[in-house]
């Protein structure tokens, strides 16, 4: 959300060279665009279009998100249901990205979805939409840092299971959870330290992360298939493209199906939709991107499309590489392993050779988590700038080099506290992070509903657009994201018990209540800025 103009110097290049002059002209164009919206930019512009692309590409991290959801995706209804769900999700997520890229092109400012929702909802509903999206998005992105830090520990401790160590890696053991918590906190701290780099230097983190992901994909498309062909062998095409399986836990004592087959297919979307959530990351760093009205829009759309294509390719490749049924208990369905994919790599690549792959993945995930913190810190900074969050005055302060360091610190404090929930029980931690993905779908649906209904006729025109496909894409995005939201708050294990209950609905509902309370009690005059003062109706 834009804030009232403040006495802040305009970030621009001081170089007298032709390159410096060109950068200054580009920055002036970006500043001019935002000033037309009565928006005074604060963050320094150090990123180009490729940095913006890499930011979202790395935050989505196509192959790692597939690895983390693959077993669940295959489990619900079998390989056929999983790859079909992933294909459908890829198409509709790309449509959603196109609609968001249009808004990003019109409003390339820090905070992205928060600012976009406020503008798209117009003068009457803008404040409510902004507060809802502010709390939803802050919840999603802050839990991302904690969940990813914990996920990295899974790859580390999985080696104990591979090499047959005596150390117990059972999440029900409080001693192991304590060690897991310490390691996760240390990994989170490393990611936070990386975020202390100046924007000018951090651009290299974007590019290194991109490099690690591409090499990871190549290793899995070249090394893994070769090793599988030399070890346990590939699954046949019939299994990959047509096999349908319904888990035994979906049957009651009389062997009657307690869950309709159609719903089991729907549950496959629980795995596929999560891979392509977070497609607003490019928008969060738009204010720091040169020529943002086009570069950030391109970065948002094309990083989503490329992620969808590569992730779908990884899904098909992994389906062919699934071990035989008699080996599944020791690999992908190994309940004693903290990350079953490591066991599959060990079986295919070898006990020693797979370590290189695992170390590469761990380093890649550290970069991925760090970049996720970049996106979340810019979002939290923009929200706090308008006084929506507690301690907003402190969180919204920016350092001399244009870095929202206090927002980064706030993310660290919140993520650290979430990680502490590992100590009492693994279920407590899982419950807290279960709402991480769900808010994203609600946000994308809400923004597109506002645009489709044209709640703000004065919405700025986009400099990047899909033309006549804009309205159809908005409609498709609404249907898809509402469906994805419903899937992600529904039970995914039956019968439902306290241990397998999906707490995302509880988390989302609680956060929504907080958003409504803020909307009710925060003075409208305190929140409204120059743009919305013109449109104010009360």
From TrEMBL:
The keyword Transport applies. GO terms for biological process: gamma-aminobutyric acid transport. The chain crosses the membrane at residues 80-101, 113-138, 178-197, 204-226, 262-279, 300-320, 359-384, 405-425, 431-453, 473-494, 500-522. GO terms for molecular function: gamma-aminobutyric acid transmembrane transporter activity. This is Amino acid permease. It is found in: Membrane. Residues 1-21 are annotated as: Disordered.
